[in-house]
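Notebook, p. 212. Picked up where the previous page left off. The plan for this session was modest: take the two constructs that came back from the sequencing core last week, fold each one, and keep the raw output in the notebook itself so nobody has to go hunting through shared drives later. Recording the first one now, exactly as returned: residue sequence, then the structure token string.
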Amino acid sequence: MFVVFLKFSADRSRAGALLDGHNDWLRRGFDQGLLMMAGSLQPNLGGALIAAGGDRAVIEAFVAEDPFVAEGVVEIEIYEVAPKRFDERLAFLAA
């Protein structure tokens, strides 16, 4: 499982022009089973994703396709997480 942070760069003013492409990219990630969660970093700092369904190379390649990433609107950080303890509602993460 991976946690991905998409933090706005100094070039964030271009985000509005790329938002439709970014939303299409998110939709594709959910459709492909790569994304499990997407949300906003508060207050208005960017976004965060929980990704699974691929190894690091797959996740990195997918993230690189985000128009926000490709156009330098966000800077990315990708962290791999190996769950050890979790609430039973998240038991599927152990698979």
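Okay, moving on. Second construct, recorded in the same format:
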Amino acid sequence: MEVKIGVQNAQRELVLDTDSTPDDIESKLTEALAAGGVLRLADVKGRAVVVPADKIAYVELGNPTASTVGFR
């Protein structure tokens, strides 16, 4: 699953590919926002992304779209 995280005062969003479910990510986000802590997610390669909850502008969950090559 592809996760895009918009961070306040940052020009680019964070994009990662993870094996987590949408429900799992939503519960982690809810906990981080309620506690005023950090959102910690791991990607498919085992790297971690840690974002302060109070700096999160938005989180977009979805499947990556495959790039098409050529004309139809």
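Notes on construct two before I forget. The CA atoms of residues 2 and 67 lie 14 Å apart.
Flagging for discussion at group meeting.
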